[in-house]
């Protein structure tokens, strides 16, 4: 197996994020693994807040090269990943890129999409939420107009005055909302009061209202919450799910946290067995990473896979969007192809 990689700056159509933390681009490192004439693609998406750097990611790929180079015959992805995982603590995005590329190759060898290789089958299309970055009032109106085809909007809360923000949004749209607080609220009674207030405003899901450390407080909130509470920062990998102890009613699975598809499938299966709702999310991945995540739509109660729509220069084709719904294709592996004029390596 031969691994090559290329860092790439993904540019947003509009500045994105909470007002104090507005971003205009994110870097991904794309990889290509070649094996017996087949090419698998993967993506390590590296938003600044994750703390994974381009340099660290490339260093990890260099460390993984000898592990991959010694594989010459039929292989089991899971066995390779065990060897890759112990190369370092962390580097979850880099590990995800390798996992995605290996699963892409397997699909191409057997000529089946990942969802058929795994046996859970092709999901019908699903509506994705579309994130509205916080901005001045005129821009919010403009962004809501641009999001017209999407049936659910996601709002990043944790601003100085979240009620004012929601009231402002409600002047322009009555679409159902997901609210992501990114650990922004600290008092459990305040959180519960806010959730009831938001519920009245047709907010149908709340993500990570409190810091990951506040497990007992979060369990108290979840028990009384009229809408699902979804863990994001509280969970990264499969082992974290055992520590949730009823503190949330669902989980946000992202490939850049889970170290890729293989563990994401295990997390989705664990969630279903334990009566937890599944939200499939993403960081800022291109169509490469999001098309990989969409392979798991069969498990999803909700999807938040809007990232390719936010990008100016998506270097892959893969899943498609129509009327705010995400559609899988029938291509083998993760179902993506690079756009050579944007990305060649
Ligand atoms: Mg989140």
Molecular structure report:
This protein is of the alpha/beta class and 345 residues long. It has two domains: 110 residues, Enolase-like, N-terminal domain (Enolase-like, domain 1, 2-Layer Sandwich), CATH 3.30.390; 213 residues, TIM Barrel (Alpha-Beta Barrel). The strands form four sheets. It has an eight-stranded parallel β-sheet with strand order 5-6-7-8-9-10-11-12. A three-stranded antiparallel β-sheet has the order 1-2-3. A three-stranded antiparallel β-sheet has the order 4-15-14, with no helix packed on it. Helix 2 packs antiparallel against helix 3 and helix 7 packs parallel to helix 8. The longest helix has 19 residues. The two termini are 16 Å apart. Magnesium ion binds next to loops. Magnesium ion (MG) binds next to loops.
Q: How is the secondary structure organized here?
A:
Blueprint: E1 2-16, E2 23-35, E3 38-45, H1 54-69, H2 77-85, H3 92-110, H4 114-117, E4 126-127, E5 129-132, H5 137-146, E6 152-156, H6 162-170, E7 177-180, H7 188-200, E8 203-207, H8 215-224, E9 229-231, H9 238-241, E10 250-253, H10 255-258, H11 261-273, E11 277-280, H12 287-294, E12 302-303, H13 307-310, E13 316-317, E14 320-322, E15 325-327, E16 337-338
Parallel strand pairs: 5-6, 6-7, 7-8, 8-9, 9-10, 10-11, 11-12
Antiparallel strand pairs: 1-2, 2-3, 4-15, 13-16, 14-15
Helix pairs in contact: 1-3, 2-3, 7-8
